[in-house]
Amino acid sequence: MTAVRLSAEANFGRRRQILTFWSVSPDSGVFAMSPTSAAWPTADKAFFFPIVLNYPAVVTEFLWVNGATVNASYNIDVGLWIANDADSSTGTLLCSTGSTAQGTASVVQAAAPSAGNYTIGAGLYWCGMTVDTTSATISRASTAGAITSCQGWKSKTSATIPLSTSYPTITLATNDAAFCPHFGIKIDNMSVY
Amino acid sequence: MLHGPPQVYSYSQMCAGEAHQRAGGGTMSTSASAVWSAADYIQIIGMRLDYPFWVRSVYALLGATVGTDSWAVGVYSADLSSSQLLVASASTLHAGSANSIQTVAVASPVRLPPGRYWLAMGCSGTTATFFQVASTVDRAMAGEVFEQTAAYSAGMPQTITPVLLNTLKTFVFGISQGSVV
Fold it and tell me: What is the pLDDT of residues B109-133, one digit of tens each?
């Protein structure tokens, strides 16, 4: 009984500070991740994964893992949408990095929300990332899109940078690409055990 | 404000997935297309909801052969003796692209409070294919995967009587709080 509870808390209850699909999704445990560097599949295509937050927090940074080929002329935007009550596959943008030049190859790159730290409450959110060129590479898992959609992944075309202009509100689409980029948010927790 | 995951499906942590995997089952990456177990067969999987969950649509991961048969997904109260239907999709023709998700809206969305339920899916025939994770009776027991034969009748029945699984497939189907899966 204790082991089962601890296992559940590994995903749900533990106060993590870096929230990626593989650190917080209730389904990530049944989704093998073997991330490797790969070219962004379509320019201005965004990928999304759900974040279930059990406590209030402050979003301080967005993070992603760059691939082997990078260039400062390649641009990235990462944002956070709150899921709408009437339909979880729709959302409203809360904060985003804005256009950010890709940095060093094969390292974690971080960027703060363009308007500074952003406080969020418990709830369901979508974290999304877009890149403006297929020349850029990002660390990603390559499981088939239909399978990843079952586990919450979504995508959206025409996600031009900045996301604050292209998708201040959004209706997500089924993920049709075998591409799950490794990205997420960094938070400072506001609650104490 | 919505809470909990946008979707819960048969192989997620809140259903069979994690326990099934601990008992030797594969990850979702090992799932593959297969025919439905039998005509009018229903697969029934224990589901735990930690948050209120609005059932607005249901979905199944279609396999390589599309068409011919009809399917539906429902949620039942978790009584072993006679579990009552709480929400279900209408029986819908297996349609769409091969190896893709078919989503069906629920006519009257239902808000399920946190608790234990049965997530169930039925299909009318064995021509259509669905994605499934290969199972064993041991994995099925660990993952609370049950079944009921000859129970689907152009839709999900009002009550089900789950029997421990002897069919060695855990099909991929689920429920969603949104219109898009």
Answer: 999 999 999 999 999 999 999 999 9
Query: What single-letter amino acid sits at A113?
Result: P
Measured CA to CA, the distance from residue B145 to residue B119 in angstroms comes to: 10
> What does the pLDDT look like over A136-167, one tens digit per residue?
999 999 888 898 898 899 999 999 999 999 99
pLDDT in tens, A86-138: 999 999 999 999 999 999 999 999 999 999 999 999 999 999 999 999 999 99
ipTM: 0.90
The A-side interface with B (CB below 8 A) comprises: 7-8, 11-12, 25-27, 29-32, 50, 52, 82-85, 87-90, 121-124, 143-144, 146-147, 149-152, 154, 171-174
Distances (CA, A) of A33 to A22, A65, A128: 8, 14, 18
Kindly state the helix (H) or strand (E) to which residue B41 belongs, with its residue range.
strand B41-49
Q: Which of A129, A157, A174, A131 is nearest to A39 (CA)?
A: A131
DSSP B89: P
- Identity of residue B48: R
Of residues B9, B21, B178, nearest to A89 (C-beta):
B178
Element (H, E) at B22: helix B17-22
